Amino acid sequence: MALKDTEIGATAGVRREDDEVVRSGGGKGEIFADLMERRISRRGLLKAGAASAAGALVLTVPGVGNFPAEAQGASMKPGTIKFTPIAPQPVDSQQIVLSEGHTWAPLLRWGDPIRHDAPEFDPENQTPEAQAQQFGYNCDYIGFHSLPFVPGRASKRGLLWVNHEYTNEELMFAGYEFGNPTPGQVNIGLAAHGGTIVELSRDANGIMYVDMRSEYNRRITGTTPMRLSGPAAEHEWVTTQDDPYAQTVLGTLNNCAGGITPWGTVLTCEENFHQYFGNLQNLDSDDPRYDVHDRYGLPEEDSERLWERFHPRFNIAVEPNEAFRFGWVVEIDPYNPEQTPVKRTAMGRFRHEGATFGYSPSGRVTFYSGDDAQFEYVYKFVSDNAWDRSKRGMNQNLLDEGVLYVATFNDDGSGEWLPLIYGEGPLTEENGFTSQGDVMIKTREAGDALGATKMDRPEDIQQNPVNKKVYIACTNNSRRGVDDNPGVDEANPRPENVNGHIIELTETDDDAVSTTFTWDIFILCGLPGDPSTYFAGFPKENVSPIAAPDNVNFDIDGNLWISTDGQPRPIGYADALHAVPTSGAERGNLQQFLAVVAGSECASFDFTDDNRNLFVAVQHPGEGGTIEEPVSTWPHDETGYARPTVIQVWADDGRKVGGGDVPARFKR
Ligand code: FEO
Ligand code: CA
Ligand code: CA
Ligand code: CA
Asked: Are 86 and 578 in contact (CB under 8 A)?
């Protein structure tokens, strides 16, 4: 079945990620048949090289964090789908639908107190002070950290980190007037951003609950003091009138995805930070900062939320440098409630989707990160030094010294990681780069100078702990090949790519610090009947439709789980969570596990180490409506408000979510 020739305008209300006009990708079937033929023949050639690494699947380094620890005991059996798939759900669905034999329940809703002494949620009388003690808005990245810190072992207690990406004021405040916010609304908004840490315990039935008396429970907000470290921390452009020595940045904003380090800290990532700043037009266009802000998409006029009216640091005309203090990866230690969060500038400044760990036998650490915008790049940071297993905490500031690389994907299926090092190649004074800190502040320009491959909105990237391959979710790019925009290439093979795709990257020697790789297309998303779709060669008759892949994660068996942000427009179904085996006869057999509700995306998710609990962020339920004219009031509680919520999911038989026995090492 060909795609319908749809053209749908922007949704009602406010959508804070890149809105895209959706057009048909149909009628291009021949092109994709040719593409896949070329790709498959090339894969045959590359297989010889890949086979040599296959014997090294089981890691020999013990206990180095969630990722490798999972891998050590992981099943080497080919992946299979063990759950009963659900049918795609309509976009106006008002309830979570999930695979039979599983149950869900809300764990943390917007406004829930996170400590026993925090105020109860009273949405009609909300205050910034109350919000700062309650679960924030628009939950996204979720990271489960076992407690005590013994990754890959029992998961009876843990610390849960959750990002609060952005706010939907029209769903938070009755009668909210766009263009005319009150100071109270603005300050509640700031307090509803950031993140939450809570301690979880598992009850006798295997269900997690929040320990309201835990000393670990805390909120990070848009005003929490943090510091900058790494090469850009000394740069003149990160100083402001309020903070002339760049000692304290207030807050973190638009934290989308993230990651966990092997030493147990959270990496929470600032994505669409540009939207909080206003009035670029009032900065002299000859000022060198103008072009940088423009390259990062800062608005010429007012920002959407108008925070600059009440907080001059968000007004570029008044404070041209504040925006240089955002767009970073922030490291937070959930085990230390006193810790000051640190913005790690060596990891680059862009619209970071996430930052996820890649394993190297050398002990050096790699973190992969996509710049989620059309025609932006894929990056990875590699530390100079090995991490020290005997130390937790910030691990000697390992993330301050290293090399940021940007990816080029060659059409022959090879690729290179190009270093962003000041003084090397084009990153010199002649081309406007004055120091390593300058290269980091202008990461996008550095990527341009190196000729990196322009991607279809790279979102989450994650290494599979079982097969070591790295999966990159390219969510969509409706402007690919349109007008003067870049045309297709082999890594972004579809024009007007409304459905997105997933790339499978193999680092040379399966070592995440390698500077070369090979790559393949794993999935071309869409309706299975659309000839432009591809599911790793698996027969398409019975796979689930999927579009707009956003977050990726792996279960213990190495099956790839994919959540979506934006299925409704291109394929007409509610956003969802899918799973797909990455090896064996079922490689490519993508099936839907869960669907979320009207207006919401299925944002990030995480499993406990033993896979008995799954946490899923249901973000912006009811978006597209207002309090007065709701699209949804899920989770349908006594408040009557739609509430972004982290739900937990468990298998009724007490086994793993998605089916199968919990490995014996977790039963101790
Ligand atoms: Fe906030 Fe790129 O999704
Ligand atoms: Ca995302
Ligand atoms: Ca992930
Ligand atoms: Ca997204």
From this structure: no
Work out the average pLDDT over 336-349: 97
Distances (CA, A) of 518 to 45, 126, 322, 408: 11, 52, 39, 11
* CA neighbor of 354 nearest in space, from 260, 264, 460, 456: 460
Q: Name 366's Cβ contacts closer than 8 Å, sequence gap at least 6.
A: 357, 358, 359, 360, 380, 381, 382, 383, 512, 513
Length of the chain: 668
d(CA 261, CA 387): 10
What does DSSP assign to residue 453? P
Can you give the pLDDT at residue 5? Answer: 28
Does the beta carbon of 459 lie inside 6 Å of ligand 1?
yes
Amino acid identity at 351: R
pLDDT at 594: 98
CA of 35 to the centre of ligand 4 (A): 27
Q: Is the pLDDT of residue 392 over 90?
A: no
Give the pLDDT of residue 149.
85
- For residue 513, is pLDDT > 60? yes
Place of tokens 């937070």: 332
pLDDT tens digits for 343-372? 999 999 999 999 999 999 999 999 999 999
Q: Which two tokens stand for residue 146?
A: 């076992």
Query: What is the DSSP track for 1-17?
Result: -PPP---B-PPSS---S
Give the helix/strand (H/E) hosting 474: strand 470-474
Tell me the C-alpha distance between 41 and 94, whole Å. Answer: 46
- Tell me the average pLDDT across 557-576: 98
3-class secondary structure, 370: strand
pLDDT of residue 29: 40
Has this prediction a pTM greater than 0.85? yes
* Residue 260 CB partners (closer than 8 Å, separation 6+): 65, 66, 67, 143, 145, 266, 267, 357
CB 4 within 8 A of CB 23: no
Nearest to 514 by CA among 418, 427, 439: 418
Q: Whose CA is nearest to atom 1 of ligand 1?
A: 256
Residue that has been written with the tokens 């990196």 in this structure: 452
- Could you give the angle at the alpha carbon of 197 between the alpha carbons of 193 and 203, nearest 5°? 135
Q: Which residues contact 291 (CB under 8 A, 6 or more apart)?
A: none
Q: Is residue 601 lining ligand 1, measured as CB closer than 6 Å? A: no
Residue appearing with tokens 């869409």: 526
Q: Is the CB of 112 under 6 A from ligand 1?
A: no
- Determine the distance separating the centroid of ligand 3 and the alpha carbon of 198, expressed in angstroms: 20
Bond into 148 cis (ω within 30): yes
Candidates 644, 649, 570; CA nearest to 605 is 649
Ligand 1 atom nearest to CA at 140: 1
Instruction: Examine residue 549 and say whether the peptide bond preceding it is cis (omega within 30 degrees of 0).
Output: no
